Amino acid sequence: MKKDVSQTTRLFTVMDHMRRVWQNLRPCPDLTKAQFGTLMVLANGGKKPGPEDPHPCLPGRPVMSLSAVAAAMGQSLPSISQRISALEGMGYVERVPDPSDRRVSGIRISASGISLLEQAKSDLGARINAAIDTLGGENLELLLNLLEQFAAALDAAAEEETGGVNETC
């Protein structure tokens, strides 16, 4: 069954608008999304927070190696190193010497980093919740279900088209 081109165009336009809005939604004015994500990784010891873990900061501020942070984020060591240095300069991250090898240091979120992270998560949550409240509970549930179904349908179409190989144009 062939779909109307105007529906496809409208969907593309709405999804592109959503992408731009989400891209511009910053957790706080002091941090980029990448810096915010790095603080989240450090606060959670490399674990991704999920719905079952609504207040994820681990007690004791775990110490991680630079390579562990890069692996947890799926990013290169040089980009993580630059980001950690910037966060350290802002006072949100601190280096911790390894007691067994003084040439090595670990990284952990600082107390001010945790405070900033918690405030940013609260502020961002409030902004997102305000937008969600305009939908109402029933519409939100419908939207989430439809987005999940649509994402699964796009995944299936991509899988069928490429035979499981992730290709770009």
From TrEMBL:
<keyword id="KW-0805">Transcription regulation</keyword>
<dbReference type="InterPro" id="IPR000835">
    <property type="entry name" value="HTH_MarR-typ"/>
</dbReference>
<dbReference type="Pfam" id="PF12802">
    <property type="entry name" value="MarR_2"/>
</dbReference>
<keyword id="KW-0804">Transcription</keyword>
<dbReference type="InterPro" id="IPR039422">
    <property type="entry name" value="MarR/SlyA-like"/>
</dbReference>
<dbReference type="InterPro" id="IPR023187">
    <property type="entry name" value="Tscrpt_reg_MarR-type_CS"/>
</dbReference>
<dbReference type="InterPro" id="IPR036390">
    <property type="entry name" value="WH_DNA-bd_sf"/>
</dbReference>
<dbReference type="InterPro" id="IPR036388">
    <property type="entry name" value="WH-like_DNA-bd_sf"/>
</dbReference>
<feature type="domain" description="HTH marR-type">
    <location>
        <begin position="1"/>
        <end position="152"/>
    </location>
</feature>
<keyword id="KW-0238">DNA-binding</keyword>
<protein>
    <submittedName>
        <fullName>MarR family transcriptional regulator</fullName>
    </submittedName>
</protein>
